[in-house]
Specification:
It comes from Chryseotalea sanaruensis. Residues 16-105 form the YdhG-like domain. Pfam families: DUF1801. This protein is an alpha+beta fold. It has a single domain (3-109), classed as Aspartate Aminotransferase, domain 1. It has helices at 3-9, 13-29, 72-75, 97-109; strands spanning 34-38, 41-46, 49-55, 59-63, 87-90. A five-stranded antiparallel β-sheet has the order 1-2-3-4-5. Helix 2 crosses helix 4. The model has no long low-confidence stretch (mean pLDDT 92).
Amino acid sequence: MNPVDEYIKAFPATVQERLITIRQLFFQLSPNVEESIRYKMPAYKVGKHHLYFAAYKKHIGMYPVYGLGELEKEIKSYRAKNTKDSIHFLHSEALPIQLIKSIIIEKSKQN
């Protein structure tokens, strides 16, 4: 079993589904994306950068999310308190799939 599969399986089923959804977005948008575990969380190399996500009790965090120009307005409501590069998707709310796709696409363009 690959390390990302192991990471995902450590969470309750409802959280696993959300993690799998985010993971699949990386592969849909970039079939040759490099997947690994870095800093004890799933990491995806998009362009010259890595994007990470991690599950917690009340949310899934995505990092680093900054410098995305037009997307900043959409990202603002998900921004973690007192951070400039972290966003949180609460388990009590639907995942913003289109926003996550846009973040992956924009980060892959940055060099």
